């Protein structure tokens, strides 16, 4: 039986920077844990060996891979975030798309009153949606 499920993000040298960036973008994002590689360990000393953060209560795990890979993040898997106000949505869109890539500009789509799809400067894809109001 599975004890928990978390989204796992593998970076190459920028994991802590990414976590701190996400905490600055979303008010409801909190860094839970930071563990760094020490002397003689497989990764570069000081980089993130393991980190945890939560976003709207959802847990994320990330680290800096000591191995270089021929792949990175793909926008086909996105972190879907529903935001309560247009101001929150617009602020997240502005910050996440800066030095990133816009896949779908912010706008009204058939499935949403206001939605945007972007990849941030680290390559992580975000689907940002205005929460439906009753």
Computed over alpha carbons, the radius of gyration is 16 Å
In whole angstroms, the N-to-C terminal distance is: 37 Å
| SS content category | alpha/beta
* Low-pLDDT residue intervals, each spanning 5 or more residues: none
Shape: elongated
What is the helix content? Answer: 10-25%
N-to-C series of helices and strands: EHEEEEHEEE
The largest beta-sheet arranges its strands as: 1-4-3-2
Strand tally: 8
What is the number of helical segments per DSSP (H or I, 4+ residues)? 2
Strand percentage, roughly? 35-45%
Nearest-integer average pLDDT: 95
The main sheet comes to: 4 strands, mixed
SSE arrangement:
Elements: E1 7-11, H1 15-25, E2 29-36, E3 48-55, E4 58-64, E5 78-83, H2 86-97, E6 101-109, E7 112-119, E8 125-130
Parallel strand pairs: 1-4, 5-8
Antiparallel strand pairs: 2-3, 3-4, 6-7, 7-8
């Amino acid at each position: 039986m599975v004890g928990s499920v978390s989204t796992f993000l593998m970076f190459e040298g920028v994991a802590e920077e990414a976590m701190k960036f996400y905490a600055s973008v979303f008010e409801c994002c909190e860094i839970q844990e930071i563990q760094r590689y020490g002397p003689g360990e497989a990764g570069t000393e000081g980089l993130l060996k393991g980190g945890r953060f939560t976003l709207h209560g959802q847990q994320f795990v990330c680290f800096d891979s000591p191995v270089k890979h021929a792949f990175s993040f793909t926008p086909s898997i996105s972190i879907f975030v529903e935001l309560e106000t247009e101001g929150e949505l617009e602020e997240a869109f502005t910050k996440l798309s800066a030095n990133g890539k816009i896949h779908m500009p912010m706008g009204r789509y058939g499935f949403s009153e206001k939605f945007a799809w972007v990849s941030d400067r680290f390559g992580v894809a975000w689907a940002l949606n205005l929460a439906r109001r009753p």
